[in-house]
Write a structure and sequence with these properties.
Helix content is 12%, strand content 39%. It is globular, with a radius of gyration of 13 Å. The protein has one helix at 47-54, and strands at 5-14, 21-31, 62-66. The relative contact order is 0.36.
Length: 67
């Protein structure tokens, strides 16, 4: 069965060189159909960045997004 949501090794970095800021680092998850999940983490951990990537509002710097 194909998962409802899957992504592997997603990362998002803003800027370059010494000014580079990593908002999301090496996130992976597979959610099967019928499963529920909760996104928890402290402020600045990349929750909003991940949701923006999943909603196709941002492109990841690296990794693979699939459904």
């Amino acid at each position: 069965m194909q998962p409802a949501l899957a992504f592997d090794h997603l990362s998002k970095t803003y800027g370059e060189g010494e000014l580079a800021e990593t908002a999301l680092r090496d996130a992976s998850l597979t959610v099967e159909r019928g499963q529920s999940c909760v996104l928890l983490g402290p402020s600045g951990s990349g929750k909003t960045t991940l949701l923006c990537i999943l909603g196709c509002l941002l492109s990841p710097s690296s990794g693979e997004l699939g459904v």
